[in-house]
């Protein structure tokens, strides 16, 4: 958790894909809004093991969690056509063909309504290594065909993992698939945060024996070090509208909130209170920055204008609140809140202050919003080790996403693609 890391940074510097079964609960009001669709297995001569794990499983998982489609059960060993779809009270059926052409796989999909009229059709081609991405692309375009907006299936979650020894920065797909390492410092590297274009990530590493901030491409190259001249450099986060990065820095051991350009120029200090200030996060419009401060006696969530003025307290429930993050619409914040001696995820209306607790078992910390505002990823120790989970914002449909080693500091990419 960032609050702990911040307090331990001097000590740290000195000492320096599996998938769970899917159990989806759909409320009656939610089901009424979903489009029932029949999705039979692909028409293919390929054996199931050639495409199921890499394509069909992530594809149907995407549709199941889309919030747009509801997969309708259908009787086995019968042709899927418009008449059957109508009898099943579904609105569409999806025809998929899959074949191998040399080193490529060719996938064709057609979304057909109950009159037999195609409503969507497209052909895709890619190598075996691209099958999972193709699954996410197809599901994304099917959702867009119905509501005009992309879903989150191409979004990614950055996180820190020690599965290979030291904590390093990793990425994974929204559903926990395609987990891969992008830093190789062989030193403690933590707290990744996405740029608004989803192309870069800023993070903290102790590679040089001190806490320093680095910016890296999501593809793992082009790393640059942000040189601040400060003793502490951590908890960095990109502005959603410009080139500024907010971060926690210190002179003579007093952590405050600073800004710096993403090229390492124009550093300026925003806070100067004698208390510890930490975990800055930008509002979606870039006009405000939330942060944690102990100026009131206990760590609480505050917000200030992006220039450092107009500081006001946001959290009042709970005696320890930290790790605030804004919903994509800016109407809510999610943060870590101590409740009955355990840390939980609290979601608060940014205007009224009304809040609710979600997440449940164990300690649950460091929430991060999906680009569509419908999901939260967070870290939890409910399994006995720190792992990353995903849930809907109402606290339902919780899925464990990581299993190897310990995994912390999730940050969801900032826009749907």
Description:
The structure is a single chain. The protein has helices spanning 2-14, 28-31, 52-64, 82-87, 131-147, and strands spanning 35-38, 69-71, 92-101, 104-113, 118-127, 156-161, 168-173, 180-181, 189-194, 200-205, 212-217, 224-226, 232-238, 244-251, 254-261, 268-269, 277-282, 288-293, 300-305, 312-313, 321-326, 332-339, 342-349, 355-358, 364-369, 375-380, 387-392, 399-400, 407-412. The chain has 417 residues and is mainly beta. The protein folds into 2 domains: 2-16 and 155-412, Neuraminidase (6 Propeller); 34-147, 3-Layer(aba) Sandwich (Rossmann fold). A 5-stranded mixed sheet has the order 2-1-3-4-5. A 4-stranded antiparallel sheet has the order 8-7-6-29, with no helix packed on it. The protein has a 4-stranded antiparallel sheet with strand order 9-10-11-12, with no helix packed on it. The two termini are 29 Å apart. Residues 3-32 have low confidence and may be disordered.
* Structural class estimated from helices and strands: mainly beta
The fold-level CATH name of the largest domain is Neuraminidase
Low-confidence stretches: 3-32
Number of helices: 5
Number of domains: 2
**Would you state the CATH class of the largest domain?**
Mainly Beta
Distance between the termini: 29 Å
What helical percentage do the residues reach? 10-25%
The CATH architecture name of the largest domain reads 6 Propeller
Strands, count = 29
CATH superfamily of the largest domain: TolB, C-terminal domain
What's the arrangement of strands in the largest beta sheet?
A: 2-1-3-4-5
**Shape assignment:** elongated
Quote the average pLDDT. Answer: 91
